[in-house]
Amino acid sequence: MSVPLHFVVKTRLVEVVERLGEGSALPPERVLAKEFGVSRWTMRQAIRELIADGRLRARQGQGTFVATPKLVQPLALVSYTEALRAQGHTPGREVVAFDEIAADAELAEQLGISAGDPVHRLERVLSADGQPIGLETTYLAVVRFPTLREVLDPTGSLYRCLTDKLGVRFGEGEELVETVIATPREAELLKATQSLPMLLLHRTSRDTEARPIEAVRSLYRGDRVGFRATLRP
User: Fold this and answer.
1) What distance in Å separates the CA atoms of residue 121 and residue 28, rounded to the nearest whole number?
2) pLDDT tens by residue, 156-200
3) For the chain, what is the largest distance between any 2 Cα atoms, rounded to a whole number of angstroms?
4) pLDDT of residue 3
5) Hey, what CATH class is 5-66 in?
6) What does pLDDT average to over the chain?
7) Matching Gene3D superfamilies, A to Z (predicted)?
8) Domain 71-228 in CATH 3.40.1410.10
C-alpha cells in the first residue's frame, strides 16, 4: 500500500520540529518545499496536519512556530484550576454568561428536576497561561443551589465553591468524549479556526448520595489539550 507523499513529508518535518525546539519559528513554506523537493501544496498539507496535531502553531501575520507540549487533563472529578496548577500552568477564566434558563427535557433528566424548572447556566472561556484552551458550560439546578449566585465568584473555582461553601461532596460522574468542529461563535471565543479539530466532553456529576450535582459541556482545542484516564479491571 502506497503512503501519501504529504504523510512522508510530515514524518520528516517532525524531525525538523524536534531539532528546532519549543517556540522556534519554522522556516517559510517555500523554503521547506524546496529543501524537501516537493510542491508547496504538499508541504502546506503536512504543516496543516502538524498544526492540527498540536506540534505547530500558526500565528497570523507572524508565521508558524513549534508549539509547546499539549496540556494533559485528567478525566476525573477534579478542579480545572488545581489540575493546571499541578502542571505548572496558570489557569484563568473569562465569564461569557452567568444566568438562569429553563431546563429542557434532556437537561431536566440529567439534573433530576422537571422540564421548565430554572437552571443556573455558567459559561466560561478557560485559559492556560493567558491562552484560551476551552469553553465550558455548567448547568446546576436552582432548587438545589438557590444561593449559588450569591456565593460564587464566577471567575474562580466552581468546585471549590461547591465543596467549601455549599457543602457538596462529589461522589462519581460519567463523561463522554467526542471530536467535533466548532461553531463560528465557539471558534471566535477560542481564537481558533473552524477547521481546527475540537474535543467535546459531556459530563454529569453526582454526590456521595447519588444525587445529581451538575451537567457540563466542555469544548477544548484539540491542538492544545489532551486527556488521560486511569483504567482498572
Assistant:
1) 45
2) 889 999 999 999 999 999 999 999 999 999 999 999 888 888 999
3) 66
4) 62
5) mainly alpha
6) 88
7) Chorismate lyase-like (3.40.1410.10), Winged helix-like DNA-binding domain superfamily/Winged helix DNA-binding domain (1.10.10.10)
8) yes
Residue with cell 431536566: 108
Residues 6+ apart with CB under 8 A from 168: 162, 207, 213
CA dist list (Å): 126 to 64, 129, 221: 24, 10, 11
User: Same fold for the domain at 5-66 and the one at 71-228?
Assistant: no
* Other CB atoms within 10 A of residue 40 CB: 13
Residue type, 214: E
Is the CB of residue 73 less than 8 Å from the CB of residue 52?
no
Grid coordinates given for 62: 507572524
Query: What's the predicted TM-score (pTM) here?
Result: 0.75
d(CA 229, CA 27): 37
The CA distance from 31 to 29, in Å, is 5
pLDDT tens digits along 9-54: 888 888 888 888 777 888 888 999 888 888 999 888 888 888 877 7
Domain ranges of the chain: 5-66, 71-228
Residue 117: all three cell numbers together: 424548572
Give the distance from CA 153 to its chain's centroid: 21
Q: What is the CA radius of gyration of the chain?
A: 21
Q: What is residue 221's three-state secondary structure?
A: strand
H-run or E-run covering 51: helix 40-52
Rounded Cα gap, residues 192 and 61, in angstroms: 15
SS3 36: helix
